[in-house]
Each structure stands twice: as C-alpha cells, then as structure tokens.
Amino acid sequence: MQLSQIPNKFAIPFANNAGAGYIRAIPQASQIGITNGAASLTDGFPPLNFLPVGSGGVPPFGQDMNGILNQITLWAQWQAAGGSGIFDSAFSTAIGGYPRGATLESTTAGQFWVSSIDNNTNNPDSNPTGWVLFQGTVASKSLNNVVSFTNTTRVSMSTSGTGVTATPWSGFNYTKRSATSNILVWSNFQLLVLNAQSNNGPAIGRMTIGSTNADFGPSTAYTQTATGAPGSIGGASTPSLILTGISAGTLACSLSFLRNDALAWVGIFNPTNSDLSGLPTTNKATLIFGEIEP
C-alpha cells in the first residue's frame, strides 16, 4: 500500500445526530427472550431477523444498526486522531489480558507502556511486571523496525576481580535499516547478586550493539550485606537506552555485567523463584529494539 491510499477519516461517527428513538447502545448479553429481534454483541442480529415476518420473524431494528455502526466508528475516529488506550481492568479480564506488543498510555503524561508478555492482566501503573516503560521526548516520535528478543535461560555467573565482565546473553542480531536513525532499547530482565558486595563498586550493566557499548548503572540496587536478603535489579526499573551514531546493517548484540570492585560474586541472570526466595521474578528477559529518527 502507499501513503496516498489512506482512507477518509470519520470527522464525526456514524449516526452522530440520530435522535433517541433512532439509535441505542448494543448490549453484550443476548437479547433472545428479552426483546424479540434485538441485536447484541453475543448474537449479532438474532435468528428472528432472518425469518420472514409471515413466519414469525422480526425485522432488524434500525436503532441497532445505527448503534453498532456508531460504536465502531467512534473507535475508528479515536484511532485516526492518534488516541491511545489506557489500562482497563474489566476489558483486560474479558479478553484474558493484553497481548505482547500492546501499547498503553500511562496515567503520567508523556509515558507509554509496552507489554513484553502475552495475556498481561497487570496494571502497569501499579504493577509493571510484564511491561516496559517508554517515556520522555522519544514518546512523541515514530518508532520503526521494532523487534523483540527473549531469553528464558537461567545463567549463573561466578566472577571476581575489578573490571571482570560476565556475559549471560549474546549471539542475537538486530538489523538496523536507516543510517540516520537512533536505536531505542527497552529492557526487562532480572539479575540476582548472591555474594556480599561493596556499596562503592557495584556491577554495571552493559548493552553491546555492534561495536557500540551502552552502560546503565552503577546502582546500589545490586548491594547485599552479609546479613541481608539477596539484592536484585531489573524489571521495569531497568532504564531504556537510546544509542546514536550506529551504522545501518546487521549488528551483533550482547548483554553483560561489569564488576567494579575486586570482591568475588555470583550473579544469576533470569533467576527462578527458588533463587529469589520470595523476591519478585520475571523468569524471562526481554529486549525490544526499534529505530527512531532524531
């Protein structure tokens, strides 16, 4: 298709000025046995509408036709105007949760949530498990060439010594199409640090795309005292990254963690519930890549 083929938009919805006697909302529940011949989302137009009147049939109600077309075109108008959806608990329950890749506007202006899992019933503004935050000035620009990578493998990494890097996830490629665009990475993962750490030198995360490194941290969220519970980072608190100046083409990607102190440590990437001893867990790492023009 071509941009010039964009269809006409609904400046007003169908039956916008229909009087009260000529339009009605379509109920979800079946109207069979309640109002003969009335439409519903369950039945559509019921069997009585398909029988001749002389055989006991009932003509379809014009109010129902106006009602369903009005509801459909209201949403068509909203979407054509660039309107976004917000989390709807009743709707989420009715459909079994939002699919992976669904985008919802946050209650905080200028922020959007992208679902990283299927069947997502969590309200991202109160429980961001399974959601990745997309925020800032980037939110008003077009994101293209979106690709999602997932990793469900538990990886235990034992390292010691300043500057040691452990790489739990590598060998996946992202193909950048435009030489002028920047790469946006939404990250959703969890790293569990099991050994006592120094507050002065926690590990930092490193995302490598081609020959470019982007670090996030350091963060004392990695810290664990000798008597405290294991520290962990990841999930929705993990920052998104915007990488500039990366050439177009196929880029090898990896995710690693760099030690900043000389202490021995054990890190578990994609920890299980048994590893976390009651702490929240994702059990799946997701990285979502996309290109955005500067």
UniProtKB/TrEMBL annotation:
Protein name per Swiss-Prot or TrEMBL: Tail fiber protein
Source organism (scientific name): Rhizobium freirei PRF 81
Lineage: superkingdom: Bacteria
